[in-house]
């Protein structure tokens, strides 16, 4: 199986990437089509869809898996079968994400600008399909494993850091302040870890080193450094 | 990439298989887990989900694809980019289907009994994931390519054939009369083909040779032979 496209995103590393797509709808990514798919023909009509499925490889998790895993959603202390979870550590390392299609660019490269993606920069893409609401949006579906979106934490961004974030510009119109709020609000650290108020956490985001700490009431951003 | 499971289904050939999963919710299939996934551990907790994603290989369509395709939904005379369709003829031949999980069997084999599947018998499965409603059921999604389920045709099954269908029993409690109605109701022939009232169409279904013809008002089953 050969990748048909590569993801370019603000997420330089696995840590901090949204746990599900659409949890952070301010995220932006470009999916660059590779030969022989880098033709306007291959994406003709794609713009008729508001959402797409991206089937991709968890390339940073290749080869490592076990039959039972401890999903962070369940606090990291309860085990489930790997097929009963969305763990990236799975037999074929295949990931599945729905993203919002914002733009189909044909020049200078054939690329899809998407929102809400939970994809690490450099992710190899195996397939892209239109999201077909009548077939894919199963209203009666229920999952006791993950029945509701995680509760969002309040995120405090000091004024000087907010200004830096507002000044950020890229080709995809990323709203960096909102993205920071969404990413940290979903609490990137494992749920079973009790936050140590002394500890500074960090992630690579849009070329910055974003750092934060846990307070009594939520999360406080402490740095956004190049 | 190695298949983790194999599909056992009533669909002996590609022709007639539902165009999307859940269009024919009477269909039944068993997804048999293969080593090393054929352990109760790998599916522990899976029963907490009503629906699953099955990521599979279109093994009957391997290697054949072009950048533009003519989807049957559009009458077969309009071209779209392959990535803008769900055509089985695609670069990596990866298919994606949501199915209803009916039962997790651990003996004598580890297998998942599922409903609504659009999977040909023998389909190799690459991954199975829980359907997570808050992440996967995108209510605001729109697709101009396929905005509504196809209109169903009325299907007439003569009494003697109905009795044969009712008598059918398998390990998965397939309701064969209802399955026939659902499969033929979605009109398996290409939309651009004007039905010839003289012509008898056929498909392999649950070990039978099912044959039908087009009438003024819909579809009439003419045979269900072993």
From TrEMBL, chains A, B:
Chain ranges of the TsaA-like domain: 1-140
Any Gene Ontology biological process: methylation
UniProt keyword list: Methyltransferase, S-adenosyl-L-methionine, Transferase
Signal peptide stretch: none
Domain of life: Bacteria
InterPro entries noted in UniProt: TrmO-like_N, TrmO_C, YaeB-like, YaeB-like_sf, YaeB_N_sf
GO terms for MF: methyltransferase activity
NCBIfam families referenced in this protein's UniProt entry, alphabetically: tRNA_TsaA
Family: Belongs to the tRNA methyltransferase O family.
Protein name as it appears in the record: tRNA-Thr(GGU) m(6)t(6)A37 methyltransferase TsaA
